[in-house]
Amino acid sequence: MARNETWGADSEENQRLRTLALTSVGLGEIEVLKYALDQAVAELHGLSGMVHWSGARVDRGGPRLLVASGLPPAQLQTWGEAIRDVVVRALRDGAPVCTSVAPGAGRESAKETAAAIPPTATLTAVPLRVRDAPVGVLSVLSCGPAKLTGRQRAFLRSLADWLAQRLAGSGTDSDGGYPRRQDLSTGSHLRQALKATRIGSWDWNILTGELRWDEAGLTVMGIDVDSGPHTIDYWVNLIHPDDYPRVMTATEEAVRTRGLFEAEYRARRPDGTTGWVQERGRVVLDAAGEPTHMIGTVWDTTESRIARESVSRALRYMSDAFLAVDRDWRITFVNLDAERLLGVTDPYGQVLWDLPTGKSPDLRAACHRAAAGREPATLDMRWPTDGRWYRVRLVPVPDGLTLYLADVTDKRLRDAEREAAEQAAAERTAWVQELTRALGDAVTARDLVRVIAERVLPPFGAAGLIMLTVDHGRLHVAGAFNHAADILDRLEDQVPVEPSPLSDALRSRAPVFITSRAEHHKRYPNFARWMARRSVDDSEKNAWAILPLLVPGQYRGCCVISFDQPHRFPGEERTLLTALSGLISQALVRARLYEVEHTRVQELQHLQAGLRESLERQRCFTADASHELRTPLAGLRAQLEEAQLHPEETDLGDLLEHTLGDVDRLQAITTDLLQLARQGADQAAALENVDLARLIETEVPRRAHDLHPMRLRLEPGVVVDAVPGQIGRILTNLLDNAQRHAVRRVEVGLRRSGDSAELTVTDDGPGVPASERENIFQRFARLDTARSRDTGGTGLGLAIARDIAHSHHGTLHVEAPPTRGARFILRLPLTNQG
After folding, report:
1. C-beta of residue 750 within 8 angstroms of C-beta of residue 758
2. pTM above 0.70, yes or no
3. Residue 101 belongs to what H/E stretch?
4. DSSP track, 740-765
């Protein structure tokens, strides 16, 4: 086999530079960047290459990823923050940076992706300088820790310089032809680096079929450098059969369209090994525009391919769903979980919106916004195939869009439960505050029961309430709601048997909860029997919460909240009811203090009013008494003075008769005044059972000087509790008044009327006008009628009679009888025979 044509050192370097320059002629900026990245990744045996662009000044904004090769940009998110920090550092310092980076700890999918990759990697970043200012960064991500050789560093610097000049427009002639000679001569660093790398170049003569590789290209392909010459058929035989159709199609397409050739395939090397290689080439045209040559480069991608496949496997089997679509929304990658969510077994190449899951308008709108704005976006949505909630993270990449789907159903449920708990706690706090305010406004025990019935019972579904206090072991009902009055009456002043839920609550100072009537009978059988015997067991109540009311030094008691149905009392309810126990205790203290003070105030007010009334009555009485006493005294004095001045004209007998009459009147007035003075003291005398019929039958015969006969209509056996002398005085005063005003007769009646004894004294005199029927009971009352004081009364008898009646819890009033005259009616409570 003939030797391959040997290239001299200088010509070989120039040929490689010429190949490098020719393959980039006419390419757009993105293609140039990809071409440069391929060279850098191959040189460093890296996982991926990136170019970030920032503009003329670093501080005008963060660097933006323009293009990436090797790993998809979505997979580069694993090192997102670390890569960005290194790129910013290279731009800021304007110098290369080579440092270790670790995967981030963001999403769960990123963690699982990183699990298939070594935990550390090396990132080498070289700034792209234009006019001594860094405008971008060329970076390579390598697997594991790495230390660059001097050759590799020189290559990256030369490649970065060439790329910067190319992007700045200084690398080609105006006609887009080959590089200027002076550019090649000044690129000594690049020539040396290309010669030393494993990036080979090749030249295929389309017309003759001859194919030539340089030394590096022969090494990459595993061909002996001394073999040759080679033809296109030799190269075709090196292509793996599975890759042959794809590579041939790309080759024919490049020749037909006069465009670019690019392919990655498995090469079956002559030494029997197989490895992945990447080739990129460009068609060279003659003057007539016909293709004559195709020149390009080739490099080994076996290591980076293995790394990419490892990442793909990690993505494939990670728990979160991951899928990628191109710019036409066709699916380019799905992992197992995403395939399940899509609901199809082979979604590759299908348009996302044609699948059932792509019918969601929210998902479609969010994807279009993210793709148009080139900004990541996130939305939560209920997935149509399984009905669960997913957080969808949309990340635009140069070739399309990636979607990460994390199941957040459980998290949403927990969040909803937490929000519900927080809302319930807020409502409970507001309810307790409002209840505290309402309890503070309750000034009486009745108000307190009303507040508890309105604000406490409904939220718990309770039906009844009894507030009990315990005094010397006896129960007293302080208030109740929705309990029969007879049950409350029977509870009053009872001594409950031990043990009981009341005593347990007071002893433990904690509420006692009874969930059902069966539990009540089981826990407190003796107390249940005690309640049944006293008929205080309300059969309509089936569960109870007994809250202790404890105020040291004041009282003890319980607030019993009852339920119509059995009640479980969950933990939250028990906690809340325990807290309410203290609030109700304090409110009851305030209510009891208010009632005590209110009673005292009322007593003081009543006493004050009584004092004022007593003083007023005493003032009027003093004035009236002075007037009544002065009148007979004045008459007596006048008669005596007249007798003294004219003794010869005075009839001694007549004088004595008139004088004794005035003295009698003075004596009667004095007697009545003494009776009024003794009235208060006599009220404290011991009461006796007085048979009113016998009393009347005894007193009437003693009245020998009465002018008119008296008729008695008496019901026997009418007995009252009274002071006999005082009741006799009432009878005497009423009979005296009737005898003075009667025309022919006086009638005395006695009978039972309900729970009272009714004594009547009726005369047939002129009667009492309706407007004066109360005035005649005033002391020294005067009437401008025939029933006046001129008939001989003192004006105090009826007043004394009414005062005595009131002191015996009775009444005395006057009314008109059916015919004529006046009827005085005395009513006194009958004796309680029980």
Report:
1. yes
2. no
3. strand 97-101
4. HH-SS-EEEEEEEETTEEEEEEEE-S
